Amino acid sequence: MKLNSAIAAALLATGVIADDASKVESTESSTSVAVEVPTFTPTTLKAPFLEQFTDDWEKRWKPSHAKKDTKGQEEEWAYVGEWSVEEPYKYKGIEGDKGLVVKNAAAHHAISAKFPKKIDPKGKTLVVQYEVKLQKGLDCGGAYLKLLRDTKSLHQDEFSNTTPYVIMFGPDKCGATNKVHFIINHKNPKTGEYEEKHLSAAPPASIQKTSELYTLVVRPNNTFTVKRGGDTVRDGSLFDQFAPAINPEKEIDDPNDKKPEDWVDEARIPDPEAKKPEDWDEDAPFEIVDEEATKPEDWLEDEPLTVPDPEAQKPEDWDDEEDGDWVPPTVPNPKCADVSGCGPWTKPMKKNPDYKGKWTAPYIDNPAYKGVWAPRKIKNPNYYEDKHPANLEPIGAVGFELWTMQNDILFDNIYIGHSEEDAEKFAKETFFKKSAVEKALEDAEKPKTEDTPKSPSDLKFLDDPVLYIKEKLDLFTTIAANDPLQAIKFVPEVPIAVSGLLTVIVALVGIFTMGGTAPEAVKKAATDAKEKAKDAKDKTAEAVATGAENVKAEVSKRTTRQQS
To answer: Model pTM greater than 0.70?
Structure first.
């Protein structure tokens, strides 16, 4: 008992040293969390249009002052939403990197930038790429861009929802709707009219407060790819991935064809020759009384199902004259809980073996059946074939025409050109560089969850000194009973504490036997003990190996085998 107390005292000292060492480790690791933020450097890449919102951005971008076409609605909307170019305040990934920011919530915004020279996608790959940063998230609103058709009537001051566009691309979310739009405003080569062709089963947008990269590639071979964060989320052919389809059907149903009145489209009918069997009793009930049933022996016929609540008390403010006689509420009779039942017993019902129900004639194949009627096909008078839908019309500008309930949506690093390789290089210089920093800042901001110790090796001395000492001693003795060497290896705190205790005892014995002054040998032993304690500060964390759990599990297995 005294020895255990002495070991516990020694462990106490060792635990303090170990905890100090873990504090130093923790401090060192926390300081290493600091994220290095790179500084913005304009790209040297060239493209038909490349925007990083540098200081001269206002020479290119102009907000619209038009009114939104509401198609006959009484309420009139104007593009009153403000724009600004500024650095993000949420997870800044690159120092000095600015973007175009939506400044007003629940407002209509419109802004556009004309290209120095129109972009003609005919016979070329078209690449559209830009970043979106939802600094306040996105509950309801759009963050897509439009590539505006190059026309003489293209005026930035008048940019609105009716301005002709070639492609609309980017995220949009409201309620259950969450998608990355890819819409082609396709020109009918036969009539010259335009029709929106929407990508079917559009991929979902990333609703996050870190930057996201959206990329669209349309190739001359009439294929396309949609990427999110550099990863392909949708690709395919322009011919079969859109609704309505790029090219209409060659044949359509004849709108003037009507189903003949004598057309029989019932495949099966009741057998007209079938007759109800004479012994078929339609009046027989579904259930009958089980005459063979007998009352259970423990059935309490004289006991009611409910009784007055014995714990209920008449309220103090109850007035018999005004409220009437007070009657306690009833509760289930406790005597009925452990028996088959209480109250009057009656024979139960059972399924009637003679029950057949209402008779109906069986069904047979209809000899007059002609099949499912469908109108005849005729040539589609509006049919056309666009063999090269990737040959989009010339593009003169890019614009954002949005309504959103969240402000501070930031757009940055817009690339519109013909090189997939250059777009990827641009992304590596910008998005991927800032994305790693932003993710690190986001992770650092998350609340740290307190890890509960899963084993004695996870315990911290200062969290609970008594538990720490108890668990270490218990684990050591449990392992030592089967393998002392393993005990020393996996719970070194106990032998270290014992070693320190023995050193102190030797020193004290030397002092008392040699009279007051400690000889040099004893002083050296004390100094060595002090050095060992100091070394424990650096080695304890490493010594408390997670293998303790494995050894304890192995001991448990051996014990189980011995018992079996």
So the answer is: no
